[in-house]
Design brief:
alpha+beta, four-stranded mixed beta sheet, about 180 residues, globular
Length: about 180
């Protein structure tokens, strides 16, 4: 009897994700559009220049200063984000430049997005938060295959959820904990 709700809820969630991420426009914006939306609150969560670490399960992940998990997108390169327009509303880019807080290891950098905004990078990966993470310590975006590719949390130490290792096409790699 309990399982009767799983199919309708799953179908609704899939429809929302497809509708939200179906745009292929590259005009993009940095998530600072008008009006109130989940993307606006996630953009606020992605603001701030200091990166930190946080525990999710047994893993230590890269987070923003507010404790929200940071993600990288497989189709990105070390010089370009491939998440623009509708994608960036659900995966807000972390504004650059960023600074390393205590425990943050790796190389921080900045890329310029297609709209001219600066985005922080870690070990060659442009950084994002996810609107589905509504509070610090969540990693609901890990291993999602939406918006044209797979999303991964950045594991600094410990064991993260299993994922297929991929890196930007021109990256030298880095320690992802997988």
């Amino acid at each position: 009897m309990r399982n009767r709700w799983l199919v309708p809820v799953g179908a609704i969630a899939a429809t929302l994700v497809i509708a939200a991420c179906g745009s292929s426009s590259s005009t993009g914006n940095s998530g600072s559009g008008s009006g109130s939306s989940p993307a606006a609150s996630a953009q606020a969560a992605g603001s701030g220049g200091a990166l930190a670490t946080g525990k999710v399960g047994s893993a230590t992940l890269l987070t923003n200063a507010k404790g929200f998990t940071l993600y990288w997108f497989v189709p990105d390169t070390t010089t370009a984000s491939n998440c623009n327009a509708a994608c960036a509303k659900y995966w807000p880019p972390v504004p650059g430049p960023a600074s390393a807080g205590s425990g943050v290891k790796g190389t921080l950098g900045v890329i310029t997005r297609s709209n001219g905004a600066k985005q922080a990078t870690w070990d060659g990966h442009p950084l994002y938060t996810y609107v589905g993470d509504t509070s610090p310590g969540m990693a609901k975006g890990n291993n999602l295959n939406i918006s044209g590719g797979v999303w991964h949390e950045i594991v600094l130490s410990g064991k993260g959820a299993p994922a297929t290792q991929s890196s930007p096409s021109s990256s030298g790699g880095g320690a992802y904990g997988y």
